[in-house]
Amino acid sequence: MARLIWLTGPSGSGKDSLLNALREAPPDNLVIAHRYITRPADAGGENHVALSEAEFRRRQAMGLFAISWQAHGLYYGLGEEIDHWLARGLNVLVNGSRLHLPIVEQQYGTQLLPLVLHVSPAVLEMRLRQRGRESEGEIRQRLARASEPLPAHCHPLNNDGALSDTLNGLRQLLEHPP
User: Which CATH number fits domain 4-169: 3.40.50.300, 3.40.1000.10, 2.20.25.160, 3.40.50.920?
Assistant: First the structure.
């Protein structure tokens, strides 16, 4: 059965770095989906498709997103292509939203494999400060949100150490899903 692999984790946990590393040599049966976001293309971080809010809403109204949500003042969407890829028997890995996991669970049921990229509070704080995108207040908010308990059915993937170790752990999960 093809799986929708819903990768979540706090901002600064290394999701973009992990996905970029996996894109270099993905497993044969895996597609890494791009998100459609109302954020400029040159904003840094995630490799995404930049849309204006008007274009996002237009595509949403036309039913072109399999999943869409709002967070941090932006609109996010996953194109309907992910459903076509799943139907072809391909596993699809996406950078998902922890808050929207219940909606995705209802839509994809047993096809869903929820993963949470986890880092210790000290490592997360260091990474947030190093990237310099957030204010002190935003850093405190992100740290508080990251300390909330993980949903019981999510599979944790630790990213405190070397990215290559995390990538190997992800590859093992993809080859032998729980």
Answer: 3.40.50.300
